[in-house]
Amino acid sequence: MADSTTHSIRAAAGHSFALTFPANPTTGYQWFFSNPLDQRFLTLVSNEYIPPASPSRIGQSGHQVLTFHAHLPGMTSIAMKYCRPWDDTDCGTFSFTIVQIS
């Protein structure tokens, strides 16, 4: 069974914010959107993998940081899944974030 989490955050219109997820691309897993973003409210600014701090151990996970820009006041969501690009039926983790933009 896959792990699932739900979060709520507040963001200010016209500003950016980041979501950070544990990630280990050496396993083949990456974070992907489960559903497209509602471009009226949010755009993805960057998607960056941050490796573990030195000295790192083989197989040690880092973090995937997704930065978003909030546009209009309102409410939207970000749905993510942690899957292998070639097999999205084997997702290990799901994350759902409710974003209230003011």
3D structure, described in words:
The protein is mainly beta and 102 residues long. It has a single domain, classed as Immunoglobulin-like. Helix content is 0%, strand content 57%. It is built from no helices and seven strands. The strands form two sheets. Strands 1-7-6-3 form a four-stranded mixed sheet, with no helix packed on it. The chain is globular. The mean pLDDT is 89.
Instruction: Report the radius of gyration as a whole number of Å.
Output: 14 Å
Q: State mean pLDDT (0 to 100 scale).
A: 89
Strand order of the largest sheet: 1-7-6-3
Quick one: overall form? globular
The number of distinct helices, counting runs of at least 4 residues, comes to 0
The overall strand count is 7
Strand content: over 45%
Q: Any idea of the CATH class?
A: Mainly Beta
Known CATH architecture: Sandwich
N-C termini distance: 36 Å
Helix/strand structural class: mainly beta
Low-confidence runs: none
Number of domains: 1
Helical residues, percent = under 10%
- What is the CATH topology? Immunoglobulin-like
